[in-house]
Amino acid sequence: MSANLKVLIVGGYGNFGGRLAALLAHEPRVTVIIAGRSLDRARAFCEAARPSAKATLSPAGFDRARDPEAGLAVLGPDIVVDASGPFQAYGDRRYALIEACIARRVHYLDLADGSEFVVGVRDYDDRARAAGVYILSGLSTCPALTAAVVRRLSFDMPRVIDIRAGIAPSPHADIGKNVVRAIAGYAGRRATLMRNGKRIVGYPFTEHMRVTIDPPGQTPLPSKMFSLVDAPELLALTELWPEAANIWIGAGPVPEILHRLLIGLAWLVRIRLIPSLAPLAGIMHAAMRILRWGEHRGGMFIDVEGEDVTGTPVARSWRLIAEGDDGPFIPAMAAAALILKAANARAPDPGARAALRDVELTDYEALFETRKISTGVREELPVDAPLYERLLGPAWKMLPVEIRAMHRVTGPRFAEGRATVVRGRGLIARFAASIVGFPSSGEDMPVTVHFACQDGHETWTRRFGDDTFLSSQFAGTGRSAGLLRERFGPLVF
User: Fold this and answer.
1) Greatest Cα-to-Cα distance within the chain, rounded to the nearest angstrom
2) What is the pLDDT of residues 378-425, one digit of tens each?
3) Which long-range contacts (CB under 8 A, 24 or more apart) does 228-231 make?
4) What Rg value do the Cα atoms of the chain yield, rounded?
């Protein structure tokens, strides 16, 4: 590899290609060729990015569908990254760029998220090895990040049984046109997945689950509905975990009203009232750009269930929350990590394959630290473990020893102290306080709390001076999964 690494990004001014260029822009040993069918857009991107870039940025016109080998001969890159897409719509010559890269002995990476495209790349393995190049597909959130996380979670599981994952973008994130085109192309149409140990046919956006994305120690995202998508993991992950009985990958588009509309349209495709949603892709993209509300945060979850060496069931989950505009950088991070490694003479082995083993979670974590991205792992604890420990996961150990001691409720416990109570004087405040049984106002009064635990529920009986009231605390389910719920009389929070 040359001292100055030349990287051609096809679709370099697009949604994900542009973010990949931004991730590489701080590396002076890299020349980034921003390429696409519009040379004017490539020039405009480079001019806007150059003032803060340490990498060399160069614009180029490049059409992957028209004699890509000739284009590679002119530009002479060391690595090509296809960040254009949608890969599901590449047609009969969908591997033309890969064939050109092998012919020119150029390394190739892509951000493909189409299951058939990613799995089909392995057909070029012998030719890639003979040419001494690596051809890595699926260097997007799906399947590269998913595979890296599942490998981390299952480190001590000889047998992985269930894998579930989902992505929930921020409602304010700019979902690219090609992503929407891909979704519109497969929604409601047949997709192959593993269920109960067998390959079956599923229909994207016609089956769902609800998940709360709650990294330990972070404010969780509200409960999200995820729908099945046609992602590479549905087939590719069986290469690493052939005994996995169930593999399910979903997406949680927002706002939920648009998600539910998409579900309804997907059912029309499934029952063959309409052939495809592809003609509606433009309208769908416009609607997602207009209908935006809610907090500017996105997230991802991955759940793994399996067995350890003794056959004991093990369940772990990984959660990610990205703040603001940092979430859309994640699909470009695997390619960025590999390019930066190549610049340090640590290139992947030759061959053509789905990128299931080539990027480690540590590679991602190094890039997460440069952005407002938080992650964490949870392990399912028995129901007789303290309620707060079950809900907080590893963040439980971050609490002061005294707080943990008070909340380690597995039987009757007692705490006491002093309290000042301030109550509202309005009619509504007095009415609400009377329903719950809150104490009267008072200064420096004695307070005691008796804790009792049964079937995973905690009952707190509080006494403020002469006033006594109690509440019940328990782990939420459904929309409140991962959260603490507390009941005061008829009210639950």
Assistant:
1) 87
2) 998 887 888 999 999 899 999 999 888 888 877 788 889 999 999 888
3) 228/191, 228/193, 228/202, 228/203, 228/204, 229/183, 229/186, 229/204, 229/205, 230/88, 230/114, 230/115, 230/186, 230/189, 230/191, 230/204, 231/113, 231/115, 231/142, 231/143
4) 26
Task: Give the three-class secondary structure for 281.
Answer: helix
> Can you read off the two tokens belonging to residue 60?
């180029």
SS3 418: strand
Rounded CA-CA distance 200/246 in Å is: 10
Q: Which residues have C-beta within 8 Å of that of residue 193, sequence separation ≥ 6?
A: 199, 200, 202, 228, 234, 235, 247, 248
Amino acid at 218: Q
Q: Residue 366: helix, strand or coil by DSSP?
A: helix
Map tokens 């892709």 to a residue. Answer: 281
Please provide the DSSP assignment of 132-169 as one string: T-EEEE--SIIIIIHHHHHHHHTTT-SEEEEEEEEEE-
Q: In the beta sheet, which residues pair with residue 464?
A: 447, 467
Strand 442-454 to strand 457-464: parallel, antiparallel, or no bridges (unpaired)?
antiparallel
Among residues 401, 318, 343, 119, which one has the least CA distance to residue 235? 119
- Per-residue pLDDT tens for 161-175? 999 999 999 999 888
pTM value surpassing 0.85: yes
Contact criterion met (CB below 8 Å) for 160 and 244: yes
